[in-house]
Write a structure and sequence with these properties.
This protein is an alpha+beta fold. It is built from five helices and six strands. Strands 2-1-6-5-4-3 form a six-stranded mixed sheet. Helix 1 runs antiparallel to helix 2 and helix 3 packs across helix 4.
Length: 178
């Protein structure tokens, strides 16, 4: 039971510290759990039980870290669907390459959000579907291509981020006709 509380503590701290990348949050949780297991639990259990517990905790830490990064991506595109510009803004870097149809500019976050607010106000989004995604070989950047269906048209949205899509990682947004 104490392991469940400790995992919850790790997840809460991960969110508080904004450790969104899969690898770092996985290593961070695993190290805390290993430390706790090595110095506290070995006193109470024999080695066979401890090995099984370590294996279970490692698998749980892997699944939790994968889930955390997937939630960030889902939250970002759900914010598009609900026209939640405050949430979208939290994902953007201070300067962003913003392209709305053929008008591409590097601008500050505030100017990009003004253009995006105008776009979302004039197009009611009914569906968002991630069509394609990819990452660089070293996982230092990734992109997502989504199909956004509105009441009038269908648009293609390209999102480029440094690392996983998370707080202040989105460097580029392109919106084009599909």
């Amino acid at each position: 039971m104490i392991y469940i509380y400790l995992m919850g503590f790790c997840v809460i701290l991960t969110f508080q510290m904004k450790l969104i990348t899969k690898t770092f949050s996985l290593l961070w949780c695993a190290n805390i759990l290993y430390f706790f297991n090595s110095y506290c639990i070995n006193v109470f259990f024999k080695n066979k039980t401890t090995i099984k517990v370590k294996q279970i905790l490692l698998v749980l830490a892997i699944f939790l870290s994968i889930g955390l990064s997937a939630q960030s991506e889902t939250a970002f595109f759900n914010a598009f669907k609900s026209a939640d510009v405050t949430t979208i803004e939290s994902y953007l870097e201070d300067n962003i390459d913003f392209c709305l149809f053929e008008d591409q500019q590097i601008m500050n976050k505030k100017a990009a959000m003004t253009k995006l607010k105008n776009f979302l106000a004039s197009h009611t989004i009914t569906n968002v579907e991630v069509m394609h995604k990819g990452a660089s070989k070293d996982k230092s950047s990734q992109y997502k291509v989504a199909k956004i269906t509105t009441s009038k048209n269908t648009f293609r949205v390209f999102v480029y981020a440094a690392g996983a899509i998370g707080t202040k990682t989105v460097k580029e947004i392109r919106i084009d006709n599909f």
